[in-house]
Amino acid sequence: MTATDRSIELINVAAQAAADKLAHDIIAYDVSDVLSITDAFLLASAPNDRQVKSIVDEIEEQLNKQLGAKPVRREGDRDARWILLDYVDIVVHVQHSEERVFYALERLWKDCPEIELPDDAKATRGKAAEHAEQRAAEEADLDGELR
By the 8 A CB rule, do 28 and 114 touch? Predict the structure, then answer.
């Protein structure tokens, strides 16, 4: 079994919305062969809680506006470290970058087929690592200035 056309459509709109809000490392997996509860997972991350919320809000807005889809469940809002949107056909995980590294969902789903995403979404791959390196360099500069 593979992800349905509807799932692919939802994934593509959600991935584009996440990319538009500058999410990092957007990736989607077809999990239909291993899970009976959903067809696909979309993973994305951001370096801070406010951006996590912004990405989730944009995904929700675009899926509703473009496809009339509303999540049946939204979890993790309070601290915005990991927000899950459940659309039945797909589940969207938007994580703070630290949670993304810690939980490493990609490791769990790496044997599932990847779903082709819009170019803007594919261009986000490696952004979390870039951002972490930039932050480390800025902190080192600041540390040097303080001495």
Answer: yes
Give the whole-angstrom CA distance, residue 118 versus residue 16: 7
Q: Please tell me the distance from the alpha carbon of residue 35 to that of residue 13, in angstroms, as a whole number.
A: 22
Q: What is the pLDDT of residue 1?
A: 61
Question: What confidence tens digit (pLDDT) does each residue in 76-108 have?
Answer: 978 889 999 999 999 999 999 999 999 999 898
Q: Would you state the structure tokens that stand for residue 69, as one six-digit string?
A: 């889809």
Q: Output the DSSP codes for 12-67.
A: HHHHHHHHHTT-EEEEEEE-TTT-SS-SEEEEEEESSHHHHHHHHHHHHHHHHHHH
Q: Cα(24)–Cα(21) distance, rounded to whole angstroms?
A: 9
pTM: 0.89
